Amino acid sequence: MSQTLSNIFVTPAEMTSVDKDAAHSGIDSFSLMRSAGTAVSAAALRLYPGALRFVTLCGPGNNGGDGYVAAAALAESGACVTVFALGEPAKLKGDAARARERCALAPGPLDGYEPQPGDVVIDALFGAGLAREVPKQARNVIGRVNASGVPVVAVDLPSGIDGRTGEIRGASFVAAHTVTFMAPKPGHLLMPGRARCGTIEVFDIGIPGRFVVGRAGDLHINTPTLWEEHLGALDPEAHKYKRGHLAVFCGGSASTGAARLSAAAGLRAGAGLVTLASPVEALATNASHLTAVMLKEIDGTADLSAWLKDKRLSTFVLGPGFGVGKTARDFVLMLCDRALVLDADGITSFKEAEEQLFDRIAEEGGEVVMTPHDGEFGRIFPGIAADTALSKIEKAQAAAKLSHSVIVYKGPDTVIAAPSGRAAVNVNAPPWLATAGSGDVLAGIIGAHLAQGMPSFEAAAAAVWRHGEAGVAAGRTATAEMLIESMPPL
Ligand SMILES: NC(=O)C1=CN([C@@H]2O[C@H](COP(=O)(O)OP(=O)(O)OC[C@H]3O[C@@H](n4cnc5c(N)ncnc54)[C@H](OP(=O)(O)O)[C@@H]3O)[C@@H](O)[C@H]2O)[C@@H](O)CC1
Ligand SMILES: Nc1ncnc2c1ncn2[C@@H]1O[C@H](COP(=O)(O)OP(=O)(O)O)[C@@H](O)[C@H]1O
Ligand SMILES: [K+]
To answer: What is the ipTM of this complex?
Structure first.
């Protein structure tokens, strides 16, 4: 797919390379800073026309430089503006020094700022260059501002958010609005950073898009642009076998609901046929609940092996309510040559046996999608989970590579990653998606997309987006059943 600026995001390191490329091409870096700072002042005036005072907090680098430009522009527009600086303003270098020289307002020391009612803070302490925990002076002012409730407009990122990971480096502002430049960064999309950005405005400061695209990795916001060219696979004209046969494995009689939710979601999401594969003990319970979903007795590896001779059976979901243990492992290892969504107990069953699974996937070459939440991720990828230096995106990418599968690392900021390093962060999921059975529904939707022939990364990304849309449509009181009912067509 050709890259456009519309749904890509870049790491701070990539953005630094973009800046360098722009400078080498002859673009004046100070004119970029002027555009950036002016955009911030325009946003502040647009959002807070009634502000009594704009208080610009300027840091020691170019983020601070943007702040001086914004302060000067606000003052020129007739607003009341005060500037406070972290560190010694005389020590600023390059464009930031130039911006400060052109700002007629004398900065006071950061410690001197006490928030007043009617203030609007322009946070220009740190942006993409935050390299360690914020210093004490910044921590103190962040604490005072957050406690006061005065609104904050953040320049590039709320200071204290790590742009690469979204983590809070000691303390961070909670912004009402963030103006970033050219493209979002992981810190705008990953939690907890995302929740502290407020509304996010991506402003084009005039760097040609080709420079951004040229340095961008394969990181995307999960929007339909990412996968819509594969929707042809979901052909509404096709007969039911062509629309894909999805098989969902069910566990024992005490926990059959989860698998039925996956199966019902798979049918609703467009699989032509859905079969629930059930052990003998749960057949009667399942039979009394199912209508359109078919039922098949699969009571052990011999049954499964016979069933798998039917090559039309291409796609499986295993995990929801299945039970943790040897049966799960045996079944999964037999399914590694097919398309398989491995969820919940299916993942947990490979705790301390993960290498066997990853080797089998590599040998058999099936299309496996794993859907761990945080707890499950830690069970099957303990080494990666424990590496605190990695962002959630980097963890999902490492897990995808290690396991030869597509990883859907769930949560409010679900990351979908492929072994190639391609990754997407999902942003449309409302918090009430966290309801019992919601993950089972997601597994069924992914299965339906796979059954209809979508490639695994796109099948998973489209399913996560669709699950989010279903949540939005179902509303705050959503239950898993309502998510199925509310699922929009693609
Ligand atoms: N993208 C673009 O195209 C454009 C980007 N622009 C803007 O540039 C911003 C990036 O600027 P930047 O690279 O100078 O980084 P910034 O965030 O100001 O911080 C660096 C300074 O902070 C210091 N420092 C760091 N951590 C610290 C800590 N914990 N505690 C104390 N100090 C710490 C660090 O010191 P050092 O680590 O070097 O000792 C250095 O002095 C970007 O966010 C955007 O606003 C625009 O001007 C237009 C074009
Ligand atoms: N705070 C949140 N905001 C949005 N989506 C969330 C949030 N928390 C969880 N989710 C989503 O809800 C689903 C929960 O799945 P899972 O944890 O497997 O739950 P269950 O086992 O109850 O089905 C996942 O798709 C996850 O991404
Ligand atoms: K900032």
So the answer is: 0.96
